[in-house]
Amino acid sequence: MKANNTTSTGCPFCGTGCALSIECGENGFKVKGDKTNPSTQGDLCFKPIQMAKALDAHRLSAPLYRADKSKPFQEISWDEAIALLAHNISSLPKDALYFYLSGQLLTEESYLFTKLIKGYLGTNNVDANSRLCMATAVVAHKMAFGSDGPVGNYADIDDADAIIISGSNPAWAHPVIFRRILARKKAHPETKIIVIDPIYTETAEKSDLWMGLSGGSDTTLYNALLAELYRRGACDTAFIDRATEGFEQTLNAAIEIPFAESVASCGLPLNDVETLVELFASDKKILGLWCQGLNQAQDGVMRNLGFINLFLATGRLNVQKGLPLSLTGQPNAMGGREVGYLSNALPGYRDVRNSDDRATCEVYWNLPPDTISPTPGITVTDAIDAMSANQIRFLWVACTNPLLTLPDVKKTEKAFSNPELFLVVQDCVLSETALLANLVLPTLSWGEKEGSMTNSERFIKRVRPFKSGPAGAKSDSEIICGLAQKLGFLGFDYTGAEAIYNEYKALTKNRFCDQSSQEYDSLSYQWGGERLYANEHFATPTFKAQFHPIISSASHPDKNQFVLITGRTKKQWHTMTRTGHVAELMKEEEHPYLVMNSNEAEERGIYEGDSVVITNQLGSLELPVRFGKLAPNHLFAPFGYPETPINTLVPVTNDPFSFQSALKSAHVRVTRKPINCH
Ligand SMILES: Nc1nc2c(c(=O)[nH]1)N[C@H]1C(S)=C(S)[C@@H](COP(=O)(O)OP(=O)(O)OC[C@H]3O[C@@H](n4cnc5c(=O)[nH]c(N)nc54)[C@H](O)[C@@H]3O)O[C@H]1N2
Ligand SMILES: Nc1nc2c(c(=O)[nH]1)N[C@H]1C(S)=C(S)[C@@H](COP(=O)(O)OP(=O)(O)OC[C@H]3O[C@@H](n4cnc5c(=O)[nH]c(N)nc54)[C@H](O)[C@@H]3O)O[C@H]1N2
Ligand code: SF4
Ligand SMILES: [Mo]
């Protein structure tokens, strides 16, 4: 759709997935919202506007190689790079290979990686940064509804009477969704915005009610609410009987602790929780949004299910009374989930453990029966251990910077630096992870390649190029196909992204995420319709939604320790490889910082701007203090600053169902930095 030098594309940042319109003129690129797009309706935030200025900064333009990781890189040709890749892959047993992908890859790229790795290489040793982001929501959706897929859609904001935002800071992380919420509030001031978050975030500041619970007490709160709704006869028993299973056991687990006692243990005032009970007991339309505050936890799946239980118990799975809508983090984590890039999945929401699913893919990919392994691959944090133990000897990282974003930086660094590991990093810039690699493959970036992406409300749109990239860089798809062809695999000779999409979309036919009837060129489609399960027909074996008893306990810090919450900054994107060069996006975020309650700081003789040392069993970091408002005994620090990688202090503690890491609850001590007197 390129007319008058205007290109329709999608934003490369958050899962809101705004459709953009890029005008290319003499003075560079003008980024606007695409008003023709039904999902985001022409809105956008400042990130893509500013980003367009920095697309050429610090780009890699030739493959880099060194046999010995302690030696400097040498530039090599693409033929040599692909030959090295092929040699390393074919000389190792398949269990010694590992691949680590990203929700920032395009659907076509994630599909190709999945086909190559699970189909042609016959290993499920592949994971993505979605393991740190959406894995918990994926598992919870499957447990509650039988399939992955966010239930509601953005239009549910526009007529909601109340919007409950738990463990999410959309004012920073999903700004266009938050603007839509504020627009609803402006047009209908009676709309209530309720924020459940240990931090008084910008989202909380703009809400009607901030419930500053103690981190990790979510499950206690949701259980207390469920039990109280039942006691007051406010559950929708007709819906529960008709469309769900498991209510009784769930209620029994929830009702054990008296309401007031539960509420007190969350650190919340009784009145505030009463407000929530009354709201759920009413007929009002409630939209429930959540993100990493519920996903990145040791009991993340239980937190997700506990929140979902409240909607199931009050018959809120429809346009009238509302529904839950999980917010997706990255621009195409949804696309990656649909093509099945996580270690247990296959395209079209299929599963490697299901023999029909494997057979369908094998036939479709012209592979002999039993090529695809029925065993899920190990997840990324286990793979890191296997790298240190010389069991995994080849790692290909694409479109993610795991050195800084996996928990326990020192452990990751040790694994990546192991001379026995051949580390390949495919990136458009020399990331911190790339600096540890044997082989660096330079890629084209957003704005230079084409494909498709799915956003947080299941809406698929095209991504189109509007500029050229460095001459020596290749698109991710071209690199994957080049390697596959070098290995002699047939079926990787596509004419372009359209051919890849068309091959993939046929695998979605009659599946939950069916998009098989869509034309690539005009892709603008919300799979599953506006709301999933509108007919109360769920994707479980009994077609009923499932309640799950919420049994969990969060670990508490010792005396003198704080709970360290980690998360995002408003203007930067993760590890700053692309946004860190843009002065406008660095404003007020130039330096790392630690947010602390002023009273807790001053008790320790710490004043705003002072440097403090935060320490735990994994190490220590020095950070300047900013004062903020948080639940007692909590701290906040952003995770993306390469000079003070906060994941140095975050241990590997995973949710037992999703294997997602608890990235929001390290326990640390804080001391004022001793003044140096010479
Ligand atoms: N500007 C910007 N936007 C982004 C990104 C970015 O890097 N920069 N990244 C994108 C990605 S990939 C993602 S995943 C999303 C993440 O988006 P969000 O999840 O909204 O952002 P976070 O900062 O990770 O954490 C959200 C909130 O969870 C709260 N929280 C912590 N512990 C608990 C708890 O125990 N209970 C509850 N109820 N809340 C808790 C934190 O205090 C925090 O305010 O953002 C996306 N958008
Ligand atoms: N402590 C803590 N840790 C966290 C989190 C947290 O809240 N707290 N959040 C977690 C979450 S939710 C997420 S999503 C992760 C994000 O973690 P990462 O994905 O590791 O972080 P990014 O900085 O987004 O890394 C993306 C990389 O891809 C490169 N890139 C950009 N475009 C392209 C392209 O087109 N092709 C290729 N091949 N490369 C490209 C970028 O230059 C960059 O190096 O962090 C996780 N880690
Ligand atoms: S809200 Fe998210 S998707 Fe939309 S323009 Fe901003 S960063 Fe991009
Ligand atoms: Mo994420």
Topology, element by element:
Elements: E1 6-10, E2 19-25, E3 28-33, H1 46-51, E4 64-65, E5 74-75, H2 78-90, E6 97-101, H3 107-120, E7 126-128, H4 135-145, H5 155-158, E8 162-166, H6 170-173, H7 175-187, E9 192-196, H8 202-205, E10 209-211, H9 218-231, H10 237-243, E11 244-245, H11 247-254, H12 259-265, H13 270-281, E12 286-290, H14 292-295, H15 300-313, E13 322-326, H16 333-339, E14 345-346, E15 350-351, H17 355-364, H18 380-388, E16 394-398, H19 402-405, H20 409-417, E17 422-427, E18 439-442, E19 451-454, E20 459-463, H21 476-486, H22 497-506, E21 524-526, E22 545-546, E23 562-567, H23 583-586, E24 594-597, H24 598-603, E25 611-616, E26 619-628, E27 634-638, E28 666-672
Parallel strand pairs: 6-7, 6-16, 8-9, 8-12, 9-10, 11-22, 12-13, 16-17, 17-18, 23-27, 24-26
Antiparallel strand pairs: 1-2, 2-3, 4-5, 4-18, 14-15, 19-20, 20-21, 23-28, 25-26, 25-28
The structure holds ligand MGD (2 copies), iron/sulfur cluster (SF4) and molybdenum atom.
Shape: globular
The overall pLDDT average reads 96
Number of domains: 3
Helix tally?
A: 24
Small-molecule binders: ligand MGD, iron/sulfur cluster, molybdenum atom
How far apart the termini lie comes to 67 Å
Uncertain stretches of 5 or more adjacent residues: none
* CATH architecture assignment name of the largest domain: 3-Layer(aba) Sandwich
Strand order within the widest beta sheet: 5-4-18-17-16-6-7
Kindly state the percentage of residues in helix.
25-40%
Secondary-structure content class? alpha/beta
> How many β-strands, per DSSP?
28
Biggest sheet architecture: 7 strands, mixed
> For the CA atoms, what is the radius of gyration?
24 Å
CATH class of the largest domain equals Alpha Beta
